[in-house]
Specification:
60 strands
């Protein structure tokens, strides 16, 4: 799981992984750290602090307090908590004398209170394992304003809070709050910090250290703190290499040592600092494995070192370093048994009959029994070796497994040399899964696709269709084949794609192969390739290739056998639509997730769809956005990240959160119209995600219901039946089961006039029955932009009457769907309506009357055979001659 936070008391490590999972490890000097407890908290955690044997844990739904001794013994029950509030950070200090005597706790509210636009800083006294509220500093703020970090003055009755009015402007600040009387706190001073945000803060005696969010060379700052009406004064700025949007965190260990880290790909990114004599440069620095997110440490004097630094590496795990001041300041990493691995930034999932596998950007391959993904002790992962120049595991972006009668479970994976540079260097890697771990057996020669860093692709895949033959998507040059030999372990690029990939003339830096699927029709073998597009590229993104082996399939004994790959066809209506992932059902239905929405079609439809106009074909195969109602907002974009068939009629899709859109996972029910080359689809269920990207205005925008486990920034999934495995930026895997016991209501029946006049009120009757007898709610779209949103409840089978008035002429489609009390949703019901009768119908009536009766148009009007109730409407349906007569007759 992705690392986020870490704290230590020198004997135990307390860490947050996957944004919400609290892990406790026993620290040993001569053997691996031991997992003591693990608990998933019902919130995204913003901060951790240890004080006097207690662990304080704040987040987007409040505060938890744990006894450290209990966590060490496996007891994860909190002893105190605060519900509500979005608390990015906290601080806790021991104070003596007046006004506060004892443990003083301050919380930093991140988001303004809804509607009132108030930000608060509540204060508590923690006494006898109970929280006592002693005051709150609150203020009215801008809607864009955020409070970020907090620190309690160690010596003076003051609290410091950082924040910004708007993220992109030079209006960052540090508030100095006077708490001489905590029940009436007041603002003592506002220190303007320009475009520099104090991302993290810590105090000791009369010094304040801050970690920085900024671009440039600044890493950390120190301020001198003063009593009374004197204010904090900027003292030193510690600088390093230039960085863009870099964030740093800082932790004071003691009077001598302070440690810090820099996130966002900085190098170096782990720092040793002098607490009270900082100077302008770090005392020592080193590199983490990938991206250092948080840091802590402790003093431990020995002949070899003066203390330890523990880093929460975003994709590498909890890393332990030693620091020394003599003979010169230095940082050195620990041996491999002090690396506590964690699955991080999962790029891809793979499902077998009994296991689920995760391809991780930072921590290699992980696998677990698919029936229980929550027990961390059951997980296996690829080995790590600190002694190598480039320590394993390689970042893995995709994998596939195969059972071998001799070697058991073999894994073929697409590896990379750097987590964030997918296409810079690529490898085929062969692994073996044992009873305890995952071992690397062999690695291929490197592949360097054209385009440098542009050669990577956001979605990648591996196919293993033959015993010893593997195919991998390689981005800008298409896909390549690898011959596998587990006996004399090797994975070798096939001779026919040694220099360039198959289909390379179809792909490039503006059209990268992102996903593959092997499909067999009779004896014909095919590879379906999905691709992503660059800007302004208008090429189709589903392409089918035929595979042939003239001399037999290449294998470990005959690796030189030829492979012939020929392009068969592309689906033209997918021009300009970037595909991240797609899936193919056993019957040949293809579902694609693209930047412009989901689409479903059968492989056999491609020729017929290509004979249509691209817009017509796309509208037939696309799943409309209103399918996802009631779990949809019109402000959301149409893009989806991944899609997977649970069975022939159940389709699961995942949408990555964007801005205020939480994204999430939908379960869709499909009904295929084979003759019409289209389908009907209904959303049967939904599970929310939550935004947790690099957006400092939405860092702690948790899902509003703390009673359900949040899926953080989901973007990938696999499914089997009604069970879905979802992953995302948190690195964790969530196992969801969609309820199939509830029967959705029947398609609603709509009755009412199909023709009418603008400005007239018409009554329409709606009815639907629920198989389980549940009450029902109606969602009605009138076709003119007007909507009735989930009106009800009504009894099952009850006919309801709803009135509507059309304000303009035209043809409209009334659509209605029904949901029951358990959120089961029906298919759409339809009724076509015309307001008013169209011109062709009016002309037809006139011509029929003319042919039947020897009278002219003027006589028709005088005889009132044509009703004159809305002259403007009638004139609009007349020829020029008829309009002239009409105006004469009516004296217009």
């Amino acid at each position: 799981m992705q690392l986020f936070l870490v704290e230590t008391d020198g004997s135990y490590l307390y860490g947050i992984t996957g944004f919400e999972t609290l892990c406790t490890y026993k620290i040993y000097d001569n053997k691996p750290y031991e997992l003591c407890s693990i608990v998933s908290l019902a919130q995204r955690v913003g901060d951790l602090k240890i004080h006097n044997g207690y662990l304080f844990c704040s987040g987007d739904h409040g505060l938890y307090i744990f006894r450290c001794a209990s966590l060490q013994q496996g007891d994860t029950s909190p002893l105190a908590s605060i519900a509500g509030g979005s608390y990015m950070t906290l601080d806790v200090k021991e104070k003596t004398g007046q006004p506060i005597d004892g443990t003083f706790l301050a919380l930093c509210e991140y988001l303004p209170t809804s509607d009132l636009q108030i930000l608060r800083v509540p204060f508590f006294k923690f006494e006898s394992e109970e929280l006592i509220h002693i005051g709150t500093f609150s203020r009215t703020v801008y809607t864009t304003e955020r409070q970020h970090a907090i620190a309690i003055d160690s010596l003076n009755p003051k609290v410091y809070v950082s924040g910004f009015e708007t993220l992109s402007s030079e209006n960052k600040y540090i508030l100095e709050i006077n708490v001489s009387d905590p029940s009436y706190p007041f603002l003592n001073h506002k220190e303007q910090t320009g475009d520099l945000l104090a991302f993290d803060m810590d105090t000791r005696n009369n010094i304040l250290w801050i970690g920085i969010l900024s671009s440039g060379t600044d890493l950390f700052r120190t301020y001198t703190l003063h009593p009374g009406n004197e204010h904090l004064i900027h003292d030193q700025t510690i600088q390093g290499t230039f960085g863009l949007g870099r964030t740093t965190r800082v932790k004071i260990i003691d009077d001598n040592a302070t440690v810090g880290v820099a996130w966002s790909g900085a190098r170096p990114d782990v720092f040793l600092l002098d607490t009270f004599n900082s100077g302008t440069l770090p005392l020592a620095s080193t590199d983490s494995l990938d991206w250092a997110f948080d840091v802590t440490g402790y003093t431990q004097h020995s002949d070899e070192h003066d203390g330890k630094i523990i880093v929460a590496d975003e994709w590498g795990g909890f890393l332990t370093y030693e620091f020394s001041f003599t003979p010169e300041s230095s940082i050195s990493h620990q041996q491999d048994f002090h690396w506590t691995p964690a699955s991080a930034m999962t790029e891809n999932l793979y499902l077998t009959n009994d296991r689920v596998y995760a391809a991780n950007r930072g921590a290699g391959i992980w696998s677990v029994d698919r029936s229980d993904v929550s027990d961390e002790s059951l997980w296996k992962h690829s080995e790590w070796d600190w002694s190598l120049e480039y320590p394993q595991p390689y970042p893995i972006s995709a994998l596939c497994t195969r059972e071998d009668p001799v070697f058991g479970t073999l894994i073929a994976a697409r590896g990379n040399n750097k987590a964030m540079a997918w296409g810079e260097k690529e490898y085929g890697i062969l692994y073996q899964e044992t009873s305890t771990d995952i071992k690397q057996l062999a690695i291929s020669d490197e592949i360097d696709p054209p385009g440098g860093f542009l050669s990577g692709s956001p979605g990648v895949s591996v196919l293993w269709p033959e015993t010893d033959l593997v195919y991998m998507a390689t981005g800008t040059d298409g896909f390549r084949a690898f011959v596998v030999n587990p006996e004399a372990p090797s994975i070798t690029i096939h001779k026919d794609c040694l220099l360039e990939g198959f289909g390379n003339n179809n792909f490039g830096t503006n059209r990268t192969a992102s996903d593959l699927y092997y499909y067999k029709i009779g004896s014909d073998q095919k590879i379906i390739v999905g691709s992503t597009l660059g800007l302004f590229v208008n090429e189709p993104t589903i392409t089918i290739f035929n595979i042939a082996y003239p001399d037999g399939v290449p294998d470990r004994d005959y690796p030189e056998r030829d492979i012939q790959i020929t392009k068969e066809d592309s689906l033209q209506c997918l021009k300009g639509k970037s595909i991240t992932y797609f899936d193919v059902s056993s019957s040949g239905m293809i579902a694609v997730a693209s930047n412009l929405g989901l689409a479903v079609f059968h492989i056999s439809w491609i020729p017929e769809l290509n004979n249509m106009g691209d817009s017509q074909a796309w509208n037939l195969i696309k799943i409309p956005e209103n399918t996802y109602i009631p779990w949809w907002d019109d402000s959301w974009s149409a893009s989806f990240s991944d899609v997977y068939f649970g069975d022939e009629n159940a389709l699961y899709s995942v949408k990555t959160p964007q801005g205020k859109s939480p994204g999430g996972v939908w379960c869709l029910d499909l009904e295929i119209d084979w003759d019409g080359y289209t389908h009907g689809s209904v959303a049967k269920g939904y599970y929310p995600g939550v935004q947790c990207g690099i957006d400092y205005t939405h860092l702690l925008q948790g899902w509003g219901n703390p009673d359900i486990v949040t899926i953080h920034h989901p973007y990938g999934l696999v499914a089997d039946g009604n069970t879905v495995y979802v992953t995302g930026w948190s690195g964790k895997i969530d196992r969801l089961t969609f309820n199939v016991d509830n029967n959705p209501p029947n398609t609603p029946d709509i009755q009412g006039p199909s023709n009418g006049k603008v400005g007239t009120i018409y009554d329409y009757k709606f009815s639907s029955s629920d198989p389980d007898g549940d009450n029902v709610y109606y969602y009605i779209q009138w076709g003119d932009g007007s909507i009735e949103e989930w009106i009800g409840p009504y009894s099952s089978g009850e006919q309801i009457s709803i009135s509507h008035t059309w304000t303009r002429q035209g043809n409209f489609t009334i659509k209605a769907k029904v949901k029951d009390a358990n959120n089961g949703v029906s298919n759409w019901g339809f009724l076509e309506v015309s307001m008013p009768k169209n011109r062709q119908m009016m002309q037809w009536i006139i011509e029929v009357i003319r042919n039947c009766f020897p009278i002219n148009f003027e006589q028709l009007l005088r005889l009132n055979i044509i009703k004159i109730e809305e002259t403007s409407t009638l004139i609009g349906n007349c020829t020029d001659r008829q309009e002239k007569i009409l105006r004469e007759v009516l004296d217009l």
